[in-house]
C-alpha cells in the first residue's frame, strides 16, 4: 500500500473537508499511536479533565457544602447528566439518569420488570456480551426460575450476526421480556430496535436493550419507539473514562415502581432526608439510582458531553462514523484479501466498529499494538477496529490498513505466542 498515493491524497482531502476534524485537538491522543480502540475505552479529553478538576477544586474548597453549593450541585448530578444524555437516546429528560454500573443496572431493571405472570421466557441471543446473561440468569434464579428453562436464546446462523426473523420468531405468548443489545460487541451488527420492540409489545412483553456499543455513536429514539428500558456505559464512544458511572433509561409509563435494588439515592428528593424506613421512589428514572453517586467517577462525563454537543449531536458523529467505516471496509476489501469483514455492510445494520476476521487475529492484534496501532481482539478470530469520529480521521484509517498489510506480509504476528488468556 505504500505506493497508493491516490488513496492517501483522497483521505487527506476528506480530512481537510471534515467539519469535525478540529475535535481531535481536544483529546489526548497518545504520541505516535493510531488509536482504534475507542469502542473499548475512549480517549481522555481536555473537556473531561477540566470537569474533573472543577469538582476536585469544589471538594477542596466547599467540602460537604458541595452537595448543595457546587455548580452544578452534586446532589442532583445524576439527574442533570440524564437531562444532557436524553437527546442522545431520544428520551425525555426525566427518563434518563446516570447511576451505578451497566451490570448493576441490568440487575435492577430485569429484577424490577421481570414478571412470570406476563410471560416466563426472556428472549436473548447467543452473541450477547456475557455480563448480560450473568445478570439475567441471576435474576431468574431470584424469581425461582431455572435459567436454562426460562431463557430463550436466539442462535446465530453464521457466528457473526443475528437474523431479525429469528428474533421475531422467538417472541410468542410465553415471552414476558426481550432483552437484546443494540449493537453486537464482536461483529458490530446494529439491531432494528423499533421492529423488535413492536413485536415484543404485540406479544404483551416488555422490550429492553443494552446500548453499550451504540450510545454516542448511533442516534436512538427510545421514547418514540416505546422501548421499556435500556442500559449503557459511558467509557466507550462517550469518552467518560475507565469505570465511569453508567446510564439507564426507563419509559415514563413505568414511573413509580419500586426498583428491585432500591437504595436511598433513588428516593424522592423531597423526602430523602426524612430518613423514613420505607422507600419513597422518585417519580422518574432517578428511582433506579442505588447508593450515593460517585462525583469523581462521573464528572468527566460532564465535560465529555460538551464535545458531543459542540459536534452537533450524535447525528453528526454518526454521519462521519459511517463514512469512516465505509472507507475502512473498502480498504480491507481492496488490500487485505486474506481477511474477511464480519460486520454488516449495510450502514443501517452497522454500529461504530468493524470486525476484521483472520485465523491469526489474536497475534495480529499484538503485532499491530507493537507498531502503535491500538486495536483489540475478540474470540475467535476478530480484530476490532473502531474509528471513533471525534478523534480519528480518514488518513488514520488508511494508515491502520497499511500497517495491517505489512504485518501480514512480514508475518510479524509469528513473533508472538498463541493466546493463553488475559486481557485482550
Automatic annotation (TrEMBL):
Alphabetized GO MF terms: kynureninase activity; pyridoxal phosphate binding
Protein's GO biological process: anthranilate metabolic process; L-kynurenine catabolic process; L-tryptophan catabolic process to kynurenine; NAD+ biosynthetic process
Gene3D superfamilies linked to this entry: Aspartate Aminotransferase, domain 1, Type I PLP-dependent aspartate aminotransferase-like (Major domain)
EC top class named in words: hydrolase
Catalytic activity entry: L-kynurenine + H2O = anthranilate + L-alanine + H(+); 3-hydroxy-L-kynurenine + H2O = 3-hydroxyanthranilate + L-alanine + H(+)
A GO CC term attached to the entry: cytoplasm
Pathway: Cofactor biosynthesis; NAD(+) biosynthesis; quinolinate from L-kynurenine: step 2/3; Amino-acid degradation; L-kynurenine degradation; L-alanine and anthranilate from L-kynurenine: step 1/1
Cofactor: pyridoxal 5'-phosphate
This enzyme's EC code(s): 3.7.1.3
Keywords: Hydrolase, Pyridine nucleotide biosynthesis, Pyridoxal phosphate
Presence of the UniProt keyword Transferase in the record: no
Residue ranges of domain Aminotransferase class I/classII large in the record: 55-218
InterPro entries: Aminotransferase_I/II_large, Kynureninase, PyrdxlP-dep_Trfase, PyrdxlP-dep_Trfase_major, PyrdxlP-dep_Trfase_small
Signal peptide extent: none
Function recorded in the entry: Catalyzes the cleavage of L-kynurenine (L-Kyn) and L-3-hydroxykynurenine (L-3OHKyn) into anthranilic acid (AA) and 3-hydroxyanthranilic acid (3-OHAA), respectively.
Quaternary data: Homodimer.
Family as reported in the entry's similarity comment: Belongs to the kynureninase family.
NCBIfam families: kynureninase
Name by which UniProt lists this protein: Kynureninase
Amino acid at each position: 500500500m505504500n505506493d497508493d498515493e491516490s488513496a492517501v491524497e483522497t483521505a487527506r482531502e476528506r480530512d481537510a473537508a471534515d467539519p469535525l476534524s478540529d475535535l481531535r485537538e481536544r483529546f489526548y491522543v497518545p504520541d505516535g499511536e493510531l488509536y482504534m480502540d475507542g469502542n473499548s475505552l475512549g480517549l481522555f479529553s481536555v473537556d473531561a479533565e477540566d470537569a474533573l478538576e472543577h469538582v476536585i477544586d469544589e471538594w477542596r474548597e466547599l467540602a460537604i457544602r458541595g452537595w448543595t453549593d457546587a455548580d452544578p450541585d452534586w446532589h442532583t448530578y445524576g439527574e442533570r447528566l440524564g437531562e444532557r444524555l436524553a437527546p442522545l437516546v431520544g428520551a425525555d429528560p426525566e427518563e434518563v439518569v446516570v447511576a451505578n454500573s451497566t451490570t448493576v443496572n441490568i440487575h435492577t431493571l430485569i429484577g424490577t420488570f421481570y414478571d412470570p405472570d406476563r410471560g416466563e421466557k426472556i428472549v436473548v441471543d447467543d452473541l450477547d456480551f456475557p455480563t448480560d446473561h450473568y445478570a439475567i440468569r441471576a435474576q431468574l434464579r431470584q424469581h425461582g426460575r431455572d435459567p436454562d428453562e426460562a431463557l430463550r436464546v436466539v442462535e446465530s446462523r453464521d457466528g457473526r450476526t443475528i437474523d431479525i426473523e429469528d428474533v421475531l420468531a422467538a417472541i410468542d405468548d410465553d415471552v414476558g421480556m426481550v432483552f437484546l443489545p443494540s449493537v453486537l460487541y464482536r461483529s458490530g451488527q446494529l439491531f432494528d430496535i423499533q421492529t423488535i420492540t413492536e413485536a415484543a409489545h404485540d406479544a404483551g412483553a416488555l422490550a429492553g436493550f443494552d446500548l453499550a456499543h451504540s450510545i454516542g455513536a448511533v442516534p436512538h429514539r427510545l421514547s418514540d419507539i416505546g422501548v421499556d428500558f435500556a442500559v449503557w456505559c459511558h467509557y466507550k464512544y462517550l469518552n467518560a473514562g475507565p469505570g465511569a458511572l453508567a446510564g439507564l433509561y426507563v419509559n415514563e409509563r413505568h414511573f413509580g415502581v419500586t426498583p428491585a435494588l432500591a437504595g436511598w439515592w433513588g428516593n424522592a428528593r423531597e423526602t430523602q432526608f426524612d430518613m423514613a424506613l420505607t422507600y419513597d421512589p422518585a417519580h422518574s428514572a432517578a428511582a433506579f439510582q442505588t447508593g450515593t453517586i460517585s462525583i469523581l467517577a462521573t464528572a468527566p462525563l460532564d465535560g465529555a458531553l460538551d464535545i458531543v454537543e459542540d459536534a452537533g449531536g450524535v447525528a453528526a458523529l454518526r454521519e462521519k462514523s459511517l463514512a469512516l467505516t465505509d472507507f475502512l471496509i473498502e480498504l480491507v476489501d481492496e488490500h487485505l484479501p486474506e481477511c474477511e469483514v464480519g460486520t454488516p455492510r449495510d450502514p443501517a445494520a452497522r454500529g461504530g466498529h468493524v470486525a476484521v476476521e483472520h485465523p491469526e487475529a489474536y497475534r495480529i492484534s499484538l503485532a499491530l499494538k507493537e507498531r502503535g496501532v491500538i486495536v483489540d481482539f475478540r474470540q475467535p478470530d476478530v480484530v476490532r477496529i473502531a474509528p471513533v469520529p471525534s478523534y480519528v480521521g480518514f488518513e488514520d484509517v488508511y494508515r491502520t490498513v497499511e500497517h495491517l498489510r505489512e504485518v501480514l506480509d512480514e508475518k510479524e504476528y509469528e513473533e508472538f505466542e498463541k493466546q493463553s488468556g488475559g486481557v485482550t
